[in-house]
Amino acid sequence: MFKKETEPLFVKISPQVEFEKQVYYLKNAKDSDCQATIVSEDHNSSPFGLVIHSDVPVQTSEKDLRKAFSDLWQEKETKAPTSLWKKWFG
C-alpha cells in the first residue's frame, strides 16, 4: 500500500534479527520492488528490528497510526490458485 503512494520505499533490517527472518524480509522487499538493507553491526544501537520508510513526508493530523493508516492494517484476501485440472476440465 505504501508503495503506491511513495517512491522509493526503503526497508532497514537490524543485524539482531534472526537470519531466517532477515532473509524473509529481504525477499518480501524485493518482491515489492523496495530497496532493502541489513544495517551494519556498527549501527546496531536502534531498538527496532525492522524500519520501513520513504523519503517523502506524510501529513496527517491523526496521531494514532492505526487510525491514520487504517487501510494498511487490514488483511488482504488471497485467492487460492486454480489447479491445473480445474483449468483444463472446468
TrEMBL record:
It comes from the Bacteria. InterPro entries: DUF1694, Ribosomal_eL30-like_sf. It comes from Streptococcus infantis X. It holds the Pfam family DUF1694. This is DUF1694 domain-containing protein.
